[in-house]
Amino acid sequence: MSAQTSPTRIPDPTTRYRRTGQRGVNTEMLSWMFMRASGALLVILIFGHLFVNLWLGLGVKGIDFAFVAGKWANPFWQVWDLLMLWLGLIHGGNGVRTIINDYARSSTPRLVLKGLLLVAVVVTIVLGTLVIFTFNPCPAGAEPSLLPAVCQG
């Protein structure tokens, strides 16, 4: 080593890292925190969903139109399923966004892929939300022979 160069100095690991030049909100950190929180909540929601639908009920054989109609007649289950839908799609979309950022080399394909992802997530959330809150197994004025058994009587 020459007298002119000094050895690389490694900072003390107990000191906080300072960023230079960054201002505003750290969106990647917020994204990381959202993934952890939504993942934990999704585990609870999904296992609750499976417990009620498969173990307390008749299993897979018991899940039919009437079962869903009965469940969605209760606002609690509408909100439960809505949370699963929204959190699952946003969590998954955020994960795919991270993959796009990692693998799309140039900005144009990255922008196109992220735009398509956003459209797909938003359309699916909107359609799923409409299905959950507008679901009516017994629409007024429908031909009685076409209605399910839960609407008879």
The number of distinct β-strands equals: 0
**What is the strand content?**
under 5%
The CATH homologous superfamily of the domain at 29-135 is named Fumarate reductase/succinate dehydrogenase, transmembrane subunit
- Please give the CATH architecture of the domain at 29-135: Up-down Bundle
Question: How does the helix and strand content classify structurally?
Answer: mainly alpha
Largest sheet: none
The helical percent reads: 55-70%
The mean pLDDT is: 88
Topology-level CATH name of the domain at 29-135: 3 helical TM bundles of succinate and fumarate reductases
The CATH class designation of the domain at 29-135 is Mainly Alpha
Q: Could you spell the SSE succession in H and E letters?
A: HHHH
- State the end-to-end CA separation: 93 Å
